[in-house]
Amino acid sequence: MTPAPELSDQPAHASINRPEGGTGAMFDGIAARYDLVNRIISLGLDQSWRVRTVDSLGLKDRREPSRVLDLATGTADLALLLAERIPSAKIVGVDPSANMLAVGAKKVAASTAHDRIQLELGSAEALPFPTGSFDGTTIAFGIRNVADREKGLREMARVTRVGGKIAVLELSEPRNGLLGPLARFHVHTLVPWVGALLSGAKEYRYLQKSIEAFPSEEEFRTVMENSDLVVEQVVPLFFGVAHLYVARPARPHDV
Q1: Which of 51, 108, 146, 249 is the most exposed place for a label (fewest CB within 10 A)?
Q2: pTM value?
Q3: Domain topology for 13-249
Q4: What is the pLDDT of residue 196?
Q5: What is the residue extent of each domain of the chain?
Q6: Number of H helices, E strands in the chain
Q7: 95 has which bridge partners?
Q8: Which residue in 127, 126, 130, 119 sits closest to 93, CA to CA?
């Protein structure tokens, strides 16, 4: 297995490097209030969901050094939680939005884990890391926004070592059950209204539409399995408002 590049010793804000392309412009305008809006529209549950995502990697008690990749890292909430709950880990956070990363870099620089977290501008569909570089890979509330989901998932499988885990946390629209109508009202009405009220931006209308259009649990599981992944667990969260998908690379051995 080819080792991943060492993390930079520079401050977090200095380790943000711009790629050739990217799809993060839509989120640049809402970066400043992104964390607050997420807390509100998720009813404060998003952080507990992130804890489950981190712990699903199975690296918490690992003594030897770990490398973890966090895609769609945004303002670095999950990257910071990874560093907190996996003391052995060095984290690389990748996101296509420069403004989101700028907010994240300030949070990282103020944390005790600043020397273990590196933030980079980049796209999930074209990761600049060798095969098998990471012990685990995460993406929280971001796979919806990857233009080519299958390609992004294949890249996650490629850069994660054999035996490592890929954890995908994503919002979804409950289609059945007693809480289905209430959850749909939340997604269709409250999410864009609260987002627009607090951020003054129309991007949260896109958020509502993207949640509505996201595949069902069964459909997305099939997408993952067609993208070089073996799905080991699917966990519905808060009556299906979100799902945690835990998988591993399907390849038989490292290249």
Answers
A1: 51
A2: 0.83
A3: Rossmann fold (3.40.50)
A4: 67
A5: 13-249
A6: 10, 7
A7: 121
A8: 119
